[in-house]
Amino acid sequence: MKTIFFVIGKTTDQRTASLTDEYITRISHYMPFEMLAIPELRNAKNLSQEQQKEQEAELLKKVLQSGDYIVLLDEHGRERRSVEFAQWMQKCMAASPRRLVFVVGGPYGFAQQIHKLAQEEISLSQMTFSHQMIRLLFVEQVYRAMTILNGEPYHHE
Prior knowledge:
The protein has one domain (2-149): SPOUT methyltransferase, trefoil knot domain (Alpha/beta knot). Helix content is 43%, strand content 22%. The protein has five helices and five strands. It has helices at residues 14-27, 49-63, 82-95, 112-117, 131-149; strands at residues 2-8, 33-38, 68-79, 99-104, 120-123. Helix 1 packs parallel to helix 5 (131-149) and helix 3 (82-95) crosses helix 5 (131-149). The two termini are 29 Å apart.
């Protein structure tokens, strides 16, 4: 199983990008994992929120594949503690979909058509974070999950 993390746009803060890349490298020791950026919309300021979500949805649909297990990172999704997330990841890996796909939407979230494609939605917090920070927080949690599943001392309870 391959795990893919789709994000909209590139990270502009090089310090955050560097830390994100560090965790992606660490995750790769446990499983195939990559973060792929979908180009930001051009002239997005001239679009309504709904138009922007619909156009981002069209870009996302081009990279999603049949058989993907799609998980949206969404503020209204289910929250899990780190240990619970690790157990959930283990179940997903055991079910062995061809690709486990996590998606962070644009600044206004996801169009309804993307919500309908997703099998699950998860939330990292009830707080709002920048899209730059969510990337880092999410890959750190995936790394933490892998260390929990392997009985390594990174996570403390």
